[in-house]
From TrEMBL:
Pfam families: PepSY_2 (PF13670). Residues 6-81 form the PepSY domain. Residues 1-20 form the signal peptide. It comes from Fuscovulum blasticum DSM 2131. InterPro entries: PepSY. This is PepSY domain-containing protein. The keyword Signal applies.
Length: 87
């Protein structure tokens, strides 16, 4: 019974975890401090920042260790693109 309850709770929480992920259009800020805090709230721990093609690229990892490249517009602080790589 307990195992069934735990499985049901895990399945019910799965969509909520997906909602916490960063998405294109989210405003995360224009400074490293603001972007780091905003991405952390969305479950993405920032590992590094670098400039790439006029955007800010933040490499971050989720709780499962999947690394994502989050591209941020430096003028608006909006996420413009998200790419992933296995980490």
């Amino acid at each position: 019974m307990t195992r069934t309850l735990l499985i049901a709770l895990a399945l019910a929480a799965s969509p909520l975890a997906a909602l916490a992920a960063p998405a294109v259009g989210d405003i995360v800020g224009t400074t490293p401090e603001a972007a780091t805090a905003a991405l952390k709230e969305k479950g993405c721990e920032v590992k590094s920042f670098e400039a790439e093609d006029g955007k800010i690229e933040a490499k971050c990892a989720d709780a499962e260790g999947k690394v994502s490249e989050v591209y941020i517009d430096p003028a608006s602080g909006a996420i413009t693109k998200i790419g992933g790589e296995e980490g």
